[in-house]
């Protein structure tokens, strides 16, 4: 009798969960529509359009060249990945005013370095990305295109809270928009079903936060001298080091 009741309870839970999953997509679309129609920004002065002055001159020239020559320009990707100075004005002038407001508790008000790279998913190559957290205090993920199906992002709990009961939320990226999230917010990318997907990822770091505790291993960082931004830790003002995990 007791067993039967238990089975009934479990079945009812499974049914509820099935229903939740079946209606997830529709619920997401309705939520998005509601936000688009009704949301009034609480601090409109903090959200302004991206302007050319937030991009370095080198970057603008390269993009103009690519547009004129109509190439997809691996040079841009290469520069973004290897020339961190390219994106400093974007981080300082455009993104930090927003992250300072959204994520002050995890260094969003004091992001002093970053690592930028482009992820690519394509049929026959990488299709997805496992659930993980970033080596970043705050991440921006910009959807660059091209055309693809599948490839939704999904988010769970913050790393320190994550457990077997954690729920996941899907996020369908919109081309040419950026999604800001905490680096410690666990996430992954579902497999693409067709096409090619490129995203610009900027892992933004706050030395104020990570100098105390390495966000990847939770230990006090042991530093090794390096050039450039390294992994965003600092020892003295003029020397930037990386964490040896
Ligand atoms: O594929 C994506 O859009 C996510 C990439 C990502 O999370 C990462 O590179 O850290
Ligand atoms: Fe990530």
TrEMBL record:
Coiled coil: none annotated. Its cofactor is L-ascorbate. GO terms for molecular function: dioxygenase activity; iron ion binding; L-ascorbic acid binding; oxidoreductase activity, acting on paired donors, with incorporation or reduction of molecular oxygen. Residues 112-206 form the Fe2OG dioxygenase domain. It comes from the Eukaryota. Keywords: Dioxygenase, Iron, Metal-binding, Oxidoreductase, Vitamin C. This is 2-oxoglutarate and iron-dependent oxygenase domain-containing protein 2,Uncharacterized PKHD-type hydroxylase At1g22950. It comes from Mytilus edulis. The lineage of its organism: Eukaryota, Metazoa, Spiralia, Lophotrochozoa, Mollusca.
